[in-house]
Amino acid sequence: MRLVFMGTPDFAVPALRALHAHGHDIAAVYSQPPRPAGRGKAVRPSPVQRAAEELGLEVRHPVSLRANQAEWDSFAALQADAAIVAAYGLILPPAMLTAPRLGCLNIHASLLPRWRGASPIQSAILAGDTKSGVTIMQMEAGLDTGPMLRADSVPITAATTASTLHDQLALMGAELVLHVMAEGAAPQTQPEEGVTYAPRLTREDGRINWQESATAIDRRIRALTPWPGTFTTLPDGTVIKIGAAALSGDQPHAPPGTILDDRLSIACGEGSIRLLALQRPGRGMMQADAFLRGQTLPAGLRLGEATTPND
Asked: Which CATH superfamily is domain 203-293 in?
């Protein structure tokens, strides 16, 4: 088929590569414009743009599609059979949704109608869901409300992180969209019951509230690593980022946030958790034993609140 591909982050790259490898004619790739990134704030193209350029595909990156008649006309002139959209980042106006012969298909990282919106992977882990998945959806004007074409699921376990689930679902999305392109699918209307929304995340979502249960804190760390990342603070206000943790199973007799031992077990509102990887300002993430060689955190010290960490 003659396709347009629209995506920006790493999640979309496996689908782009798979469609190209299976012989689909990709007329153009749309991606967010290159932006400053990293400590040096050098301007970098998106992962999808880099992959498209490696494949020799035309890349377009309009800043906005709102009231952009010239871009709408250019998109329609591609005369695509379908547009495949995966975490593109811009809202498609009706003129673009209806331009391809078969419309626009979205690779969405949840089992719709659960977790419509911007952060379905993280939201599923945060909520304690036992499974997640990918839905291929026919796009319409509403937020992830269109008819479902195909879906598949994977379990969420106590070891699942946002990173591992992201990678599983990215590969699953590529496989599912290939099936839809090859075999077609009968659209199924999304049920009205079971709708939930996954909000756009901010760095403040990563603040650890030690009043929560150890289970909830463990889920937050797994869900928000690597971005936006989770953090806590020392009594002097120093912000410490947390990269990994494990449930310890103990119910301490200490206020939430109290360090319980020399293994960095921390009292929570219910139960306790042990910190496994931490990062002090200006340093890289390191294992707890290495972290403690340069930072004394004695038992009895209580972790508290502070401002959101800088990049």
From this structure: Formyl transferase, C-terminal domain (3.10.25.10)
| DSSP line for 267-301 | E-SBSEEEEEEEE-TTS--EEHHHHHHSS---TT-
Contacts of 179 (CB under 8 A, 6+ apart): 150, 185
Average pLDDT in the 37-42 region?
Answer: 76
User: What local confidence, expressed as pLDDT, does residue 311 receive?
Assistant: 46
H/E element holding 95? helix 94-97
Single out the residue of 242, 210, 246 nearest to residue 228, CA to CA: 242
In the block, tokens 């999808």 appear at: 48
Backbone angles phi, psi at 200, to 5 degrees: -70, 130
Domain boundaries, the chain: 2-197, 203-293
C-alpha to C-alpha distance for 165 and 168, rounded to whole angstroms: 5
Question: 149 versus 248: which is more confidently predicted?
Answer: 149
Q: For 14, left (φ over 0), alpha (ψ -120 to 50), or beta? A: alpha
Residue 310 has pLDDT above 70, yes or no: no
Query: For the domain 2-197, what is the CATH code?
Result: 3.40.50.170
What average pLDDT does the segment 286-299 reach? Answer: 92
**Which distant-in-sequence residues (6+ apart) come within 8 Å of 269 by Cβ?**
210, 211, 212, 213, 256
Mean per-residue pLDDT of the chain: 94
